[in-house]
Design a protein that fits this description.
Number of strands of chain A: 32
Largest sheet of chain A: 8 strands, mixed
Number of helices of chain A: 33
Largest interface: A-B, 49 and 49 residues
Radius of gyration of chain A: 33 Å
Distance between the termini of chain A: 53 Å
Strand content of chain A: 15-25%
Oligomer: homodimer
Strand order of the largest sheet of chain A: 13-23-22-15-16-17-18-14
Helix content of chain A: 40-55%
């Protein structure tokens, strides 16, 4: 057996490494084969998922082609040394290759009995398709002859050889892929071949020669003949592929640390394309899309793995294997079941049969849909494979969002015409309308499904939004009016879609070359931001039994309570149905936007003095009271946190000259006067302006009216025996004195109202902690406030100094450059904002023992933020009704994580 | 001797006080008289300034009419009990009045030999004219007869009586003052009397009767005859006067705690109006306006104290007293000198001579002008009365602002036509102009003094502002563009003057009925906000020798270094002359507003890509470099902290359609394109938008250009042997990664530039801590940053969630209602913002030992904030050049306070 490894070393592959980069001390390469392996499944960080599982399978006696894995540590060292190998790595690799020759009983570079290997990447976290792979490594002008002799199949041998040169040339030598394709194309033309498979052995032999000339022309050197030189080149290429652009982007998008590095697995080749008793395939131990306990997969006879992926030939479903090769099928299902039971999770496997012999090439935890995740988790518990706690941890809270909204049918092939921000998840189909009135008209009177398309929405569009299936806007960000309101309604929304130009007055919008007119159908995907032409089929969500099961386990596990942010009885109903244990944020200003109410609100704002303002507020009182009656009734017995009016008053006034004209007529006031008021209320930084408790302090009559509505509603119900737990929340408090003054008004109104109704109610008055100062002086505030609710939206804005409406100009760049690990409005910034939250809780509880603390920012529905809320000892999280199940599960995860 | 005190008690003055409000245990009343006193000067908190000093004078043997002081504690108890006397107080008062009768050898209510008393307020902090006083108390139908017999002067006795009824009726019984005046007026008419003094004894007797009828008519009861009832009523009235509106406002304006309470001094009356050997006067131990060591004061013969104040007769200067009553003069000056030496400060005294006998009625520390304060402090040190440290503490840092700007001549009687915000102190006279070009033209070409009057200023007005003596704007707050720029220039500014209507196009402005045309003279008082018609005479500031002396003592005492905020070589020069030890904040964007530069800046902003932007930046480089050369040269050897570009780019673009039209022509670009850029750069909350380091990170070429300008300038000077200490400051950092990226660029440019010039410079790269997050993660930031400068303007905005530009809608209300103790943009909010500053310093120094820390917000020039900066261990404060002397003195105060 002649081996490339026994030849004298002719040159160093790399300059000597500095002494801190030695590979000699640590084990750099882990072998597997001949029934035992150096590694095991638990060593994913060091060996990558693939390498660790190959080792484990080898130890389990599953048939695996022998090989070895170079550790991720070597990859990191390679980068630390400026892309050079550490001292000693080469020697270890040569030594292990010699061992492999012994196990495989072949020689690396042996012209008679050549050992061929694959070289693959593999990191601790799966990054499918992101990094490079080389197959058939070890072929050269001599060894190809040995392969011909051994297989008695020149066509197979030359095909393997030309594939190797092409792959290696592209990946390792960086010769343009398309140059190989051009040569191949010409060759097919020459021989009238339709596909690669139609090329004869001779044609392939010619191809090999031409490929080698191409490499020489492009690189100025010959294609490497020495198998070990080929190998070191391939290992380097895999190392390098860790930092290629698409891998870096993938990691950024999936928040995978760049520091993991990739392992490199070198494994002896087996061939699924050696004739009619050879085949290759992929399989799952269960159906990964439904979770059903059926063996699942597909295969191709006489093919290599890449053919399955390439999609040129259509693979057969795994059921066919049972008929074609029943023994093999039995062997495979047995291995599948064994691996599933061993790893205690659904397995995603690659296998190859070489001339009747089965080899497992890979097994890993199978990716699955949310539906499957839930089904598998509950089934595994039933099968006593895992505990309930393990089952809970198997379901990713972020993923189950899929189960709570309609989704695009995966089988559909829609025409995407534009892409905007995925502002509110789910999918929606409907006829396009360009104004809210039309939306209400069509939806309510003609029972049509409509999509409301606007340049951007304003409070006046609320009813139109409620009537629509989904909302599409051309402007505004993830927290624009459209986005926030849509998420609150659990309604699909694509916002800030700058690909479209909305021509409202002409009743159409343009998206590239497409023009979409009123009443044309479109489909929105609020989870991806895609806008599609026509009616794309949807899949409706179903709260299956197993989903309910998982959530009930979650309820038994979690410590955090879960409340919902809901502003209407309808929202409150949805929230309760999803398992909310109270309302954590009822935004009263949303009640001010109704069609009958807005004019009265405007009358209040335009009032010349306190008495005119009181008169307008008196007209609003019955509306507010009605809202609270409805909400209290739905939530009976559960706490309802009502936030007093928060936004600056100018948000309620019309901004465009046309709207001002219209409103001035409606209210019977001079348009110039209206305009002057709008101008006088204009603010340079409304986020930091006259809003929150500052409104109720400067206009106490607003607080009085709201308190009256709350307590009249509560007393009426209480008198009728309904249990009511109102928690009045004062927004934007920064100084204890603000709280004291606002609370005084509320307590006074409560006292009077209860006396009038002859009812004694338990109620609390607390505050939102959303201004950094509030967190800093939380002890002083807690002396007065009976609960805290962290308003992490505004707290994030002010702690970072980021206006949510304006971050579009720099946040994308910040995320791309990893200046910030994530959008802090999506995931709570635990280091910065979180420190203030922690400080606020500590100080608050120091001043008031057992102070009730919750969160009501959008983070309240985001799993990593919920974990944080658990760790800092909050009592509850509050989120959009449609995220309540996610929060219940995430809270259980947090409790389990803590237990560990 | 018949006494009202011996009469049986007929009724309780107040309901029994609850047991927690007993006066019996504590000493409630402190007596003085007969050569000794219960109290002493150190008891000001308890006895008020007046009572404490009367006690001290009595103990010193100075002639003082005997009396007693009811403590401030009693006033507070009075309020705590709901405006009732504590149990026991009445008994103590009766007892002490009996003692007084003994010392004065007169009886309270004795018809033969009546004891008359004055009842005066007096708190620990002087509140001149804010509270009430009653004189001649004890007179009634019987005792007035005794007074007539004793004085043999019926006119005097009836005059005293009618004055008492009038004063008591007004203050205690709350009968309208003008009703007494009406009766008096009719009486004068009836007898053809020009003044009160022309009324005969009989006329005054009639007046007494009619006054008593008025009281009976208005109150339904008789005017109280019982002297003790009179006394308790008067004491109540003084207690009540502590909480009258004007006293509350005065305390708010002067930040005097409401909890101090007032003492009540009851003192036996002496009369300066008993004939030609009686007189009354006020005097100062030195001249309170210049500080000169000359006895100073004025007096009126045959008059009561109120006549001196009333200004009907013109008092004589004290020098006349020497001629008229030389013995008395000697006695008085001796007492004055004695009191000054005893109290070791300038004394402000009231005295009365009754028939040749001198009585001192009051002595207190004399209020003085800043000029006098400085002169007196240094003279007292020379006279070895006080130490240097005491002298330093005698000069109020806030007050010396007067010495650094021109002021309105106190003798002038200007016509005030409008009042705006006192945006930048000092006074200015000039001809009105309505645009910046005209200001430059007149000022530079015709050497005219001009006042620039604008609706509001914009960056384009900078040169006009520099050319003007002062600036007047109709809109904008204390931190509007005009205000900030003017303060930086040390230039007088009245901003947000809503009393005026500016008609720029018609070249005039209106203020009430006045119309002021271009080139009319006006005068501004930037310290009060007043706008005056015509040329009002000014007093120029002078840095006298004693002022320099005080500052040099301050320099020897303080630990904090003092730097200045300066953007130009001119500012830097002023700062050095005022003693700045470096520049703590050089705002580079101010350099972008020059007439030649703004078009280039706009070119940079409108650039379509990085290369076009670089081309524009290359044109800006020479300007920036020139600025830095100038500043480094002025500051040679002292550190200069340069902040990289901070404001959002839209601040540099024209906003009005007319300006856009003009600029588009100037730059040769399409006006629509310009408008689109302006629109695309529009931000909802620019304070929280794309600014600060976010600019330099998204457009690294801006940072590169700025760093190049800094280091080229520094290297050129260093090469010529000038010592240069550049400190590059990255603004608005919230995350260490932002800092790291910006610093990398700066270090790289520095390295290249130094290599090019073959110069090695010491320089630092640090950051502003102005985003709350930065304070929270200061440890991580300090691992990279070499210094911190707290930008407390923005830190206050974000910590409170207050936009400085928008607080006008609620902050005045907050201050009025004492929700906040002070404007947090003026005085640093130590509890909230200060906690973050403290945290930032602790964390920063934990990560980097000896981290250099300063402040560069406007608080850096405010004494109470400087004290805080000292206490939290900052290395320096930086403030406007014109506040550097204030900061030097305040820093010394802080060091001395700490020593105590």
């Amino acid at each position: 057996m002649k081996s490339a490894l026994r030849r004298p070393k002719t040159r160093r592959l790399a300059a000597p490494a500095p002494s801190n980069g030695r590979a000699g001390k640590a084990k750099a390469i882990y072998a597997f084969g001949g029934g035992k392996a150096d590694g095991r499944a638990g060593m994913k960080t060091l060996l990558g998922g693939k390498g660790a599982n190959l080792a484990e399978m080898t130890n389990l006696g599953v048939p695996v082609p022998p090989g070895m894995t170079i550790t991720t540590e070597m990859c990191n060292t390679y980068y630390a040394l400026g892309e050079r190998w550490p001292h000693g790595l080469e020697a270890q690799l040569r030594q292990k290759m010699r061992w492999l020759e012994g196990v495989a009983k072949k020689g690396f570079g042996d012209p008679k009995n050549p050992l061929l290997v694959s070289v693959r990447s593999g990191s601790a976290v799966s990054m499918p398709g992101m990094m490079d792979t080389i197959l058939n490594l070890g072929l050269n002008a001599q060894t190809v002859q040995g392969l011909i002799v051994k297989t008695e199949n020149p066509r197979f041998a030359y095909d393997a050889y030309r594939r190797f040169i092409q792959m290696y040339g592209d990946v390792v030598l960086e010769v343009e892929h398309k140059q190989f394709e051009e040569i191949l194309g010409k060759k097919k033309l020459k021989y009238g071949a339709k596909t690669d498979a139609d090329l004869s052995a001779d044609a392939l032999k010619e191809l090999v020669a031409e490929y080698r000339q191409l490499v020489k022309r492009a690189k100025g050197t010959d294609f490497p003949e020495d198998p070990f030189e080929q190998l070191t080149g391939a290992v380097n290429a895999v190392f390098r592929s860790w930092n290629n652009e698409r891998a870096k982007i993938y990691r950024r998008l999936n928040t995978i640390p760049h520091s993991l590095g990739t392992a490199v697995t070198v494994q002896s080749m087996v061939f699924g394309n050696m004739g009619s008793t050879s085949l290759t395939g992929v399989c799952f131990s269960r159906d990964p899309s439904t979770g059903e306990n059926v063996f699942y997969g597909e295969y191709l006879v006489n093919a290599q793995g890449e053919d399955v992926v390439a999609g040129i030939r259509t693979p057969k479903p795994i059921a066919e294997l049972k008929r074609e090769f029943s023994k093999l099928y039995q062997q495979l299902t047995k291995i599948s079941q064994r691996l599933e039971r061993y790893f205690k999770d659904i397995q995603d496997m690659e296998f190859t049969v070489e001339e009747g012999t089965l080899y497992m090439l890979q097994t890993r935890t199978g990716k699955r849909t949310a539906r499957a995740a839930v089904a598998i988790a509950t089934d595994f518990v039933k099968e006593k494979l895992i505990t309930r706690e393990q089952a809970l941890l198997r379901v990713d809270p972020a993923q189950i969002d899929q189960l709570l909204h309609p989704t695009i049918d995966p089988k559909a092939k829609p025409r995407v015409i534009a892409k905007g921000l995925p502002a509110s998840p789910g999918a929606a189909v409907g006829k396009v309308v360009f104004n809210a009135h039309r939306a209400v008209e069509l939806a309510e009177e003609a029972s049509e499904r409509v999509i409301l398309v606007r340049e951007e929405t304003s409070p006046e569009d609320i009813e139109g939004m409620a009537a629509a299936q989904g909302i599409l806007t051309a402007r505004g960000g993830m927290t624009s009016h459209a986005a926030v309101v849509a998420r609150g309604m659990g309604k699909c929304c694509v916002a800030g879609c700058s690909d479209i130009i909305v021509r409202e007055e002409e009743n159409h919008f343009e998206a590239g070359e497409a023009t979409v007119k009123e009443l044309d159908y479109i489909t929105l995907n609020g989870t991806t931001g895609e806008v599609m032409l026509g009616e794309v089929p949807l899949v409706q969500p179903s709260l299956t039994g197993s989903f309910k099961q998982v959530l009930s386990w979650a309820d038994q596990t979690r410590r955090l309570r879960v409340r919902a942010n809901a502003d209407t009885p309808q929202d409150a109903k949805v929230a309760r149905d999803f398992g909310a244990e109270g309302i954590g944020l009822c935004r009263t200003e949303h009640m001010f936007f109704g069609e009958e109410r807005l004019p009265v609100v405007r009358e209040m704002i335009l009032a010349k003095d306190a008495s005119a303002r009181k008169a307008a507020l008196a007209k609003l009182l019955p509306f507010q009271k009605q809202d609270f009656l409805g909400i209290f009734e739905v939530m009976k017995g559960l706490p309802v946190t009502i936030r007093l009016l928060d936004p600056p008053l100018h948000e309620f006034l019309p901004n465009t000259p046309e709207d001002q004209e219209r409103v001035s007529k409606q209210l019977g006031i001079d348009v110039r006067q209206l305009r002057e008021t709008v101008n006088s209320l204009h603010e340079f930084n409304p986020m930091l302006g006259h809003r929150g408790c500052r409104l109720g302090i400067t206009y106490p009559e607003i607080n009085e009216m709201q308190a009256q509505a709350i307590f009249e509603a509560a007393c009426e119900l209480a008198r009728d025996g309904v249990k009511v737990v109102p928690e009045v929340m004062i927004p934007l408090v920064g100084h204890p004195q603000e709280f004291r003054i606002a609370k005084r008004t509320i307590d006074e109104v409560a006292r009077q109202t209860m006396a009038r109704y002859k009812v004694a109610l338990q109620y609390l008055v607390g505050t939102m902690i959303e201004v950094p100062r509030a967190a800093v002086v939380a002890d002083a505030i807690a002396q007065e406030a009976e609960f805290f609710s962290f308003g992490t939206n505004d707290l994030t804005q002010m702690t970072f100094g980021f206006s949510r409406d304006d971050i579009g100009k720099f946040l994308p760049h910040y995320l791309k450059e990893r200046i910030l690990p994530a959008d802090p409005f999506v995931k709570l910034d635990q280091d910065g904002v979180g420190s203030l939250v922690r400080l606020g809780i500590e100080k608050g509880r120091a001043a008031r023992k057992g102070l009730k603390v919750g969160i009501c920012g959008e983070h309240g529905g985001e799993p990593s933020s919920i974990d944080f809320c658990h760790r800092v000892g909050m009592d509850y999280v509050s989120c959009s009704p449609y995220r309540v199940p996610i929060a219940r599960l995430a809270a259980a995860h947090a409790a389990l994580r803590e237990k560990k």
